[in-house]
Amino acid sequence: MTKQEITDHNSIVLLVDSFYAKARKDDLIGPIFNEVIGDHWDEHLPTMYKFWGDILLNRNEYEGNPMFVHKRLNARIPLQPVHFERWKKLFVETVRELFEGDKAELAEQRAVSIATVMQLKISGYH
Question: Origin, by domain of life (predicted)?
Answer without folding.
Answer: Bacteria
